[in-house]
Amino acid sequence: MIGPDERIFVAGHRGMVGAAVVRQLRRQGCRNIITRSHDELDLVDQGRVKDFFKGEKIDRVILAAARVGGIHANNRYPAEFIYTNLMIQSNVIHQAFKCGVEKLLFLGSSCIYPKYSPQPMKESHLLTGTLEPTNEPYAIAKIAGIKMCESYNRQYGTCYRSVMPTNLYGPGDNYHLENSHVIPAMVRKYHLAKLAMDGNVAAIEADQARYGKIPEDISRAIGYRQDLKKLSDDKRCEVVLWGSGTPRREFLHVDDMAGACVHVMSLDQSLFVGANPSFVNVGAGKDIPISQIAQIIAELVGYKGITRFNSDQPDGTPRKLLDITRLSQLGWKPAYSLKEGLENAYEAYLSGTDSR
């Protein structure tokens, strides 16, 4: 169990997962949660990370800091994705060990598994095939993090373990339309389209001020003239989504992910040695076609217009479903249904609590 007085460093506390982990720890009565902003501590800087761990008495580390993004961002910035993530995890894991931190949780990603991995994906499928090319640099960095934790456990007897989340969504998500993941991108696109159909230009401008500039192709799709700050008279509104809509994806609310993180950190180390891998899949245990999640979000937002899938854009992996048998056997299950989770996420979006 995690003691209320343990000093717990949550790296990446301003990100969606890190913020949810902090909320979860506070709900469980933890009183000494240590956080640092990027300006206070650049985790890519080895010297600053070394000084931080030397100056703080840390009992546990939850490493949720990472450079993340969707297909577009991974394709556009592969060098930044592999370099930044390798440096962050290498610095934090190594300096934690050097300063006597025995317990650490590393957050990976379901993209560590091969593109054509058997479904659902088991922990044993790691390194059994070729990765999805669109996010290979990010995936390789995450695999390195898993193996780094395993290697320190093997050589030094530490309790470093990892969790592999499926696609996450919820409060604190990133709604920037060039760098966001599937659900936040859909939520914002459908919300903007609904505003356009309602003729609410003021609300479109407010959304843009809060969540970032609307790309020109999306403005055209919803019939919004950014140069004139008005809606076009001769353009019908539509939502255009990347790919064919046929790939299947699994989604998990971020508060469920945070609960799983704290649960896994609280387990006895005997469950992570020998034939038991040091990492655990975290997911909902079921998936859904992209076209169907789009329909659910459109109904939630109240959009009744046209949805069009652009098959010229990549689909990514055909299917990504995690096998969560091991985590279930370890005594955890998600609390949110997909519908409940999406309602919660949309409420957070409307309230502006997701503004970056």
Please tag this protein with its features.
single chain; alpha/beta; Rossmann fold; 3-stranded mixed beta sheet; about 350 residues; GDP_fucose/colitose_synth; Epimerase_deHydtase; about 40% helix; GDP-L-fucose synthase activity
Helix and strand arrangement:
Blueprint: E1 7-11, H1 16-27, E2 32-34, H2 46-55, E3 60-63, H3 71-76, H4 78-98, E4 103-107, H5 136-156, E5 159-165, E6 167-169, H6 182-197, H7 201-211, H8 216-222, E7 224-225, E8 230-231, E9 238-242, E10 248-249, E11 251-253, H9 254-265, E12 279-282, E13 288-289, H10 290-301, E14 306-310, E15 319-320, H11 325-329, H12 338-351
Parallel strand pairs: 1-2, 1-3, 3-4, 4-5, 5-12, 6-11, 9-14, 10-15
Antiparallel strand pairs: 7-8, 10-13
Helix pairs in contact: 1-9, 2-4, 4-5, 6-10, 10-12
Description:
Its EC number is 1.1.1.271. It is an enzyme of class 1 (oxidoreductase). InterPro entries: Epimerase_deHydtase, GDP_fucose/colitose_synth, NAD(P)-bd_dom_sf. It comes from Desulforhopalus singaporensis. Substrate binds at residues 189, 242, 249, 315. By secondary structure, the protein is an alpha/beta fold. It has a domain at 7-172 and 251-283 and 321-334: 3-Layer(aba) Sandwich (Rossmann fold), CATH 3.40.50. It is built from 12 helices and 15 strands. It has helices at residues 16-27, 46-55, 71-76, 78-98, 136-156, 182-197, 201-211, 216-222, 254-265, 290-301, 325-329, 338-351, and strands at residues 7-11, 32-34, 60-63, 103-107, 159-165, 167-169, 224-225, 230-231, 238-242, 248-249, 251-253, 279-282, 288-289, 306-310, 319-320. It has a 6-stranded parallel β-sheet with strand order 2-1-3-4-5-12, sandwiched between helices. Helix 5 links the parallel strand 4 (103-107) and strand 5 (159-165). Helix 2 packs parallel to helix 4 (78-98), helix 6 packs across helix 10 (290-301) and helix 10 packs across helix 12 (338-351). It is globular, with a radius of gyration of 21 Å. The model has no long low-confidence stretch (mean pLDDT 94).
